[in-house]
Amino acid sequence: MVNPSQPDGRDSRDVRGVQSATAAAIAPRLVSVWVIWGSTYLGLAVLVQTLPPLLTNGIRFLIAAGILGLGLIVFRGVRTLAVTARQLRSAATMGIALLGVGIGTVSMAERFVPSGIAALLVSVMPLWIIIFRLRAGEQFHLGVLFLAIVGFRSAS
Q1: Taking the CB of the first residue and of the last residue of the chain, which one, N or C, has fewer CB atoms within 10 A?
Q2: What's the pTM value of the predicted model, to 2 decimals?
Q3: DSSP H helical segments within 3-141, as ranges?
């Protein structure tokens, strides 16, 4: 499999199967996530003023799933959506946890907390993950730490 994010096109994966990529390949994707994800909190703040937060999030995720599913069907064929019962169970568990616990809690809190504060609190999560992984003995490239700090600073 050819990896376009590597200069020579090779597929470089570590022993865990994690694919590595250059900082130049990661940076624009990370910036787009920050911008798109950050604007989500403003949208949620507006929506929760008039609609129930969990219903709004449910509709938003259904629309996103439909768009992503349609994209997969168009570009990779309908067989791409075939999953086993175990995969479906795992995906449902993660979806319920993400919608109900993660984003659902944040959207319900945004009825009482300004969206900027909510976004700031959520933006700290990557830093906590890095801290826990460093404590577990994992070593990071300085670029990862730098980008995480830049992302946190841009949110604050």
Answers
A1: N
A2: 0.58
A3: 23-47, 53-76, 85-96, 104-109, 115-123, 125-135
Total domains present in the chain: 2
Output the tens digit of pLDDT for each of the chain's 156 residues: 445 555 555 556 766 777 777 888 888 888 888 788 777 777 888 888 888 888 888 888 899 899 999 999 999 999 988 999 999 999 999 888 888 888 888 888 888 888 778 877 777 777 788 888 888 888 877 877 787 777 767 665
* 84 φψ region: left (φ > 0), alpha (ψ -120 to 50), beta (else): beta
Query: Residues 94, 119: one domain?
Result: no
- 12 part of a folded domain: no
Give the C-alpha separation, 61 to 94, whole Å. 13
Tell whether 107 is covered by a domain: yes
